[in-house]
Amino acid sequence: MDRIDFGIISELQNNARLSNKELAARVKLAPSSCLERTRRLTADGVLRGFHAEVDPAALGVGLQAMIQVRLAGHSRDHVKDLQEHLTGVSEVLGYYHVTGEFDFLVHVAVRDADHLRNLALDSFTTRKEIAQIQTSLIYAKMRKSIWPCLIPADDESLNG
User: Fold this and answer.
1) What residues have CB less than 8 Å from 156, skipping those under 6 apart?
2) Which CATH code is given to the segment(s) 3-51?
3) 37-51: pLDDT as tens digits
4) How far apart are CA 93 and CA 47, in angstroms?
5) CA 121, CA 53: separation in Å to the nearest integer?
6) What's the pTM value of the predicted model, to 2 decimals?
7) How far does the chain reach from its first CA to its final CA, in angstroms?
């Protein structure tokens, strides 16, 4: 990857709806070359998708929470089984396998407190691989959609 690839990534992170023509102009590249680079970045898995930001309330989401999960044991099977389970729970927006007192942080979206209680009882406390959960309500949320570029500026591939 070179500085033009990083420019394409940066522009698309800011606005994934840019036309190829506008993107090419912003990174100072011919549209055909820009399209080829964007296709290559997608094929290589650098660009993983393009997403719409949605208002949760419009979908009936009235409450979000982080559920901290402590595993009953730290076997690969426990981790794999929990990950497969969480992937299938519609209220789970994402999870993080972490170090520390708890093993997983699970971001959930629900209608209200009753829905959260039922989700905890039905989808978490019944699991054999889970020893304990702790729930924290989310009052406010900020999520950056732009990843920082942590490759040193003096990297030779950026000078190309």
Assistant:
1) none
2) 1.10.10.10
3) 999 999 999 999 888
4) 20
5) 30
6) 0.81
7) 9
